């Protein structure tokens, strides 16, 4: 267990990034069963597969002190998806590295929620964890996710594009694009983005 564990939830203007709770499993499963949410994934997930994801995220948190955290809407208390950090678990030219990722229910699309939570996650990664680089990846045609990566200051080099090893090379979701950002680049972003990391007392 690392001493960088998220001992208190992270607060942003509209969100709480926190450890997973049993009550999150139902809305998480509903999100993962929605074909609109899972359009750029190989398939939707049934309840057993969705629960297995929560189990893996909790195990990652216990082992490393960070994970793709559950998002909670500060105004309503509703589950708002996940955003956070994780070690990339497959072989690729850019591994070993930590990735940032997000997945939100449709009700939270188009409101800047993913960007808000992602900035807080970057602040945790480069601040508390002292990472030197964080990456993100998505199918080339997933334009909405790519826009979030660009909005939070990540950059793509087409030479980094890759075939995801967990999918057949001719899968319709191939190829994937890779975006990167460094601690040095993050340090040059506006101070307001640094201030997005606020832990609840």
Order of helices and strands: EEHHEEEHEHEEHHE
Strand % is 15-25%
Shape: globular
Residue windows where pLDDT falls under 50 for at least 5 positions:
none
The percentage helix is 25-40%
Distance between termini?
21 Å
Q: Count structural domains.
A: 1
What is the second-level CATH architecture?
A: 3-Layer(aba) Sandwich
CATH class: Alpha Beta
Mean pLDDT: 93
Largest sheet composition:
9 strands, mixed
Spatial ordering of strands, largest sheet:
7-8-6-5-4-3-2-1-9
Describe this structure as you would to a colleague:
By secondary structure, this protein is of the alpha+beta class. It has a single domain, classed as 3-Layer(aba) Sandwich (Aminopeptidase), CATH 3.40.630. 30% of the residues lie in helices and 22% in strands. It contains 6 helices and 9 strands; from the N terminus they run ββααβββαβαββααβ. It has helices at residues 25-32, 47-64, 113-128, 143-151, 183-187, 191-194; strands at residues 10-11, 15-18, 68-73, 79-87, 98-103, 133-139, 155-156, 176-182, 198-199. It has a 9-stranded mixed β-sheet with strand order 7-8-6-5-4-3-2-1-9, with helices on both faces. Strand 3 (68-73) and strand 4 (79-87) form a beta hairpin. Helix 1 packs across helix 2 (47-64). The radius of gyration is 16 Å and the shape is globular. The model has no long low-confidence stretch (mean pLDDT 93).
């Amino acid at each position: 267990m690392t001493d960088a564990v998220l001992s208190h939830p992270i607060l942003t203007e509209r969100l709480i990034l926190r450890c997973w709770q049993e009550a999150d499993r139902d809305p998480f499963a509903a999100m993962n069963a929605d074909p609109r949410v899972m359009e750029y994934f190989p398939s939707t997930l049934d309840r057993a597969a969705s629960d297995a994801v929560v189990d893996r995220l909790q195990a990652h948190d216990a082992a490393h002190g960070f994970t793709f955290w559950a998002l909670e809407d500060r105004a309503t208390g509703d589950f708002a998806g996940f955003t956070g950090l994780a070690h990339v678990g497959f072989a690729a030219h850019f591994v070993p590295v930590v990735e940032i990722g997000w997945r939100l229910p449709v009700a939270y699309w188009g409101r800047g929620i993913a960007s808000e939570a992602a900035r807080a996650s970057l602040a945790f990664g480069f601040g508390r964890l002292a990472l030197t680089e964080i990456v993100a990846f998505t199918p080339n045609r997933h334009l909405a996710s790519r826009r979030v990566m660009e909005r939070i200051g990540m950059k793509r080099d087409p030479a980094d594009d890759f075939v995801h090893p967990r999918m057949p090379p001719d899968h319709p979701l191939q190829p994937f694009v890779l975006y990167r950002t460094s601690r040095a680049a993050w340090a040059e972003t506006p101070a307001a983005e640094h201030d997005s990391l606020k832990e609840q007392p």
